Structure formats: structure tokens, C-alpha cells
Amino acid sequence: MSSETNGSPGSVLVTGGSRGIGLELARRFAADGHPLVLVAREEEALEEARRQLESEGSPSVLCLSVDLAEPGAPRRVYREVAGSSPPVDVVVNNAGFSTHGPFHRSAVGAQGDMVRVMIEAPTRLSRLFLEGMVERDRGGVLNVASTAAFQPGPRQAVYFAAKSYLLSFTQAVAHELDGTSVRVSVLCPGPTGTDFQERAEMDGVRLGGEGPVPLMSPARVAEVGYRGWRDGQRVVIPGALNRIGALGARLTPDSLNMRVVDWLQRPPGQGGQEG
Ligand SMILES: NC(=O)c1ccc[n+]([C@@H]2O[C@H](COP(=O)([O-])OP(=O)(O)OC[C@H]3O[C@@H](n4cnc5c(N)ncnc54)[C@H](OP(=O)(O)O)[C@@H]3O)[C@@H](O)[C@H]2O)c1
User: Fold this and answer.
1) Between the N and C ends of the chain, which has fewer C-beta atoms within 10 Å?
2) Which of 18, 21, 67, 114 for a ligand 1 pocket mutation test, highest count of atoms within 8 Å of Cβ?
């Protein structure tokens, strides 16, 4: 069942929809006839995404160039599309990024931006859009977290913590909406082949595709995420290895989990914890 049950397909708003996993999720929703609203900062990348999606037959693609780290950005996004027809029936909170390295040496501004983009923006966008979804009794929210959500993550401390917040927050809201037709899910991909690792300066580390965890394609992640959300699954983890890893982290003391993460954060040939 998709969100067009009560009439024409509603719009789908995808933050970080200009590239990577967000672009693939947008593509997947468009294939089911949903008009799109893409939110990201870089206008050129947004326009390129719009051209691609329209050439593939997407119904309509509206691009909003917005920095979600700016105060008030979620409300500005909401105002841009409030009252539009068809209404926004689905919000995909996907925008995200990370720094890499010890917290005390990280860029001070970047840490605050991570909190605003990956905690504050998804929370506020969910609040602003969910009320109408519940009134219409259709649509929902798909939050993109990570397998990072399942344990603390040395060298990406804020990123792992932000994804844990999204996992907890999404499950609680989904529980509140049990018994409605509004679906709320959290997608927890493992390492995925996008620009993310290069932008986080993680190239060459085990977690960036050089180690035991292979990179999954963003199209595969999006397909599994889309189906999981559509089928009402609350927590969606693409890939058997990632599901085993997430379960393993739940059953293992965090002191040990963090040693493993620290090791994964290094290039092959390097151990953990030496600075
Ligand atoms: N790749 C992985 O290994 C992996 C694994 C698990 C989870 N994830 C999660 O998946 C999501 C998508 O990541 P990806 O791998 O597709 O990375 P990506 O290719 O780097 O795409 C990130 C998207 O977020 C947007 N974005 C970043 N900062 C923003 C800001 N301040 N305001 C608005 N938009 C912003 C980017 O556009 P602009 O830069 O133009 O703003 C881009 O569209 C993220 O939440 C990430 O944490 C990724």
C-alpha cells in the first residue's frame, strides 16, 4: 500500500535529495508516481538531479536550495510547500554528513551543524508535517539513520550519537501512531558507496570500504528502505551483514563495541586507539 490510497499520489519531500541515498530514494518514490520536493544546499547538484529525474519520467520535481544547518531552515522549508497541491504526504529526512577524527580536535562549527542537520531538522520537519499527515490519515516519515545508531562511535562521536537519537525518536513516534495509516520508519544503512566517505575524509579507512564491511549500492539501500517503509517496518536495516552487526552490537558491551568501531575507523594495517 502506498500513500496514494485516497486519491492522487502525494508529494514526497527528500532532504539531501540531490545525490547519494537521497537521490535514489527520490527516484524510487518517483517511479510510483509521486511528485518530488528536493532539499539540499548546492543548486547545481539539485538542478542536475532534477534533470535526471525528469528525463526518467518523474511527474514534477521542485528544488529548494536550503542549508538545514541554518536556524529556522525547517520552518522555511515547510512554509515553501505548505498548502501546495498535492500536499506533502511523505517526508524523507535523509540529509547528513560527518567529520572524522577525535572530537576535541574537530571543527567546532561542524559539530553544531551536524546536530542541526541530523537531529534538529528531522525533528522539526517531522513535527511540522506529521500533523497534516495524521489529519489526512495517509503518508508518513522515513528517517535515514545508520548502523552507527546501535553503538557509540569513537572518531565520529557526534555522528553516531545523532543517529542513535534518530533511531530512538523514530521508533517512539511510530509507536504513537500505531493504529493510523501513517507510517514512520527509520532506515539504518551500513557503509554505502556515495560521496559521504570522501566528504567525511574517511577515504582509506576500513569503514570507508577498505575493510571487512563491503559498500552497498545507494540504489539497493533505497529500494530496501522504500519497501520497508511502504510495508510498515519500523526499523529497516539493508543487508544481512548489517543486520547481524546491529544485533551483535545490541548484545555486546559498549566498551567492546567501541574498540571494534575504533579499529574500523583506521586504514588497513593500523590498530586502534593510538591517537
Ligand atoms: N554513505 C554511507 O556510508 C551511509 C551509511 C549510513 C547512513 N548514511 C546516511 O545516509 C544519508 C545520506 O548520505 P549519503 O551517503 O547519500 O551522502 P551524500 O552523498 O554526501 O549526500 C548527502 C546529502 O545531504 C545533503 N546535505 C548535507 N548537508 C546539508 C545541509 N546542511 N543542508 C541541506 N542538505 C545537506 C547533501 O547536499 P548538499 O551538500 O548540496 O547540501 C546531499 O544531498 C545521511 O544521513 C548519512 O548519514 C550514509
Assistant:
1) C
2) 21
